Amino acid sequence: MKYVDEYRDPETARKYVEAISRTATRPWTIMEVCGGQTHAIVRFGIQDLLPDEIELVHGPGCPVCVTPLEMVDKAIEIATRDEVIFCSFGDMLRVPGSDKDLLTVRAEGGDVRIVYTPLDAVKIATDNPDKQVVFFAVGFETTAPANAMSVHMAKVRDLNNFSVLVSHVLVPPAIEAIMSSPENRVQGFLAAGHVCTVMGTHAYGPLANTYGIPIVVTGFEPIDILQGIYMCVRQLEDGRAEVENQYDRAVRDVGNPAAQALINKVFRVIPRKWRGIGMIAESGWTLSDTYAYYDAERRFGLIDTDIAEPEDCISGLVLQGLKKPSACPAFGKQCTPDHPLGATMVSGEGACAAYYRYRKEKAA
C-alpha cells in the first residue's frame, strides 16, 4: 500500500535492528507512551527483534484504559436515564464499570449510540430537540480539537440539549508522574506522534532536562518505531537528554496553533484521576467557565466518588510500565476480551488486548 509499505520494509527494519545492536553496549529500558505504538510493537514482534540489552515497557497512552472507573460509572448513570441519548466511541462501550458497562445499558433498553466523531452527536442533538444528548469526551490531546469543536458548535447553535462528559487527559504530566515514582525504571521515552501533531514538542523539553531522559517523538509503523528506538538508544549511549522528532513527516515543533487555540478556549487544565494510577496534578482538561453550561456532570448533578479497582487486575502496573500483561495471573483466564477485568483488555489500544491477540501462546 502506497505510503505504508515503505514503513514496513523488512530490509530497512533489519538495518535498524543491526544499528541498534551495534549501538547498545548496556541494558536500557525504553517506554513507548502510545497504545497504538504498543500494538505495533506486539503485532510485528519488534521486541523479539531487538538485542537483549533493550527492553520495551508499555506506558499509559491508551485513553480508554486510563479513564477512571468513577467516570465510567457516571456515564452509565447518565445513559440509563429515559430522556438521554448517550453517544460514545465504540471502544468505550465494553469498558467495565463497577457493576456493568455501557453495552449492557444498551441491551437493557438505554439509548446508547456509537458515533465516529463528536460532531455526529451535535447532529443527533439538532435532530432530537426533545432529548438530552450527551457525548462521552474521552481521549488525549489528539481528540481534544474535535471534542472542543463540538462544544463550540453547540454554543454557536444555542443547543440547549447537548452536553459532554469530559474525561480528557494529557501526556506530559503522565511522563512526569512516571519519572517521579520511586519504582520507576524507564530511561527513555518514545512520545506519541499524533499527540505532538496537535500540541507540538515544546512541553517535552523541560521533562528531558529535569529528569535527564531522551524523548523521541515517534510514529506508529514498524520502521518509525525502530528508528525511534535507535535514536533513543543513541542518546542514552551518548549521555544526552534531548527531544528529537522521528515523526517529522507529520509533526512540527509548534504543532497545530489553530487547534491549540480552540482547545485553550473551550477547556481548562485540572487535576485528573487516571485509572490504575491515581490522581496526577494538572493532567486533565474540563470545560472552561465560558462553556461550563455544556458540562454533563453539572447538568445532571453528578457527585464525585472514589471506587476501588478489582484486586485481581494489575492494569495499573501495566500502565506504569512496571509489569507486562503476561505477568498477570488472570491474563487469558479470568480476564479475556469477552470477560475483561480491566480496560487494558478491552481497548483496541490496550496492552493486555495486544498481548492476547498477538502473543497469547507466549504469554500463557
Describe this structure in words.
- This protein is of the alpha/beta class and 364 residues long.
- The chain has a single domain, classed as HypD, alpha/beta domain 2 (Rossmann fold, 3-Layer(aba) Sandwich), CATH 3.40.50.11740.
- 40% of the residues lie in helices and 19% in strands.
- The protein has 17 helices and eleven strands.
- The protein has helices at residues 10-23, 35-43, 46-49, 63-66, 69-79, 102-107, 118-127, 144-156, 171-180, 193-199, 204-211, 222-238, 257-266, 296-299, 315-319, 351-358, 360-363, and strands spanning 28-34, 54-61, 84-88, 112-114, 132-139, 162-169, 188-192, 215-218, 243-245, 267-274, 278-287.
- Strands 4-3-5-6-11-10 form a six-stranded mixed beta sheet, with helices on both faces. The chain has a five-stranded parallel beta sheet with strand order 2-1-7-8-9.
- Helix 8 (144-156) packs across helix 13.
- The radius of gyration is 21 Å and the shape is globular.
- The protein starts with 9 loop residues before the first helix and ends with a helix.
- 50% of the residues are buried.
- The mean pLDDT is 92.
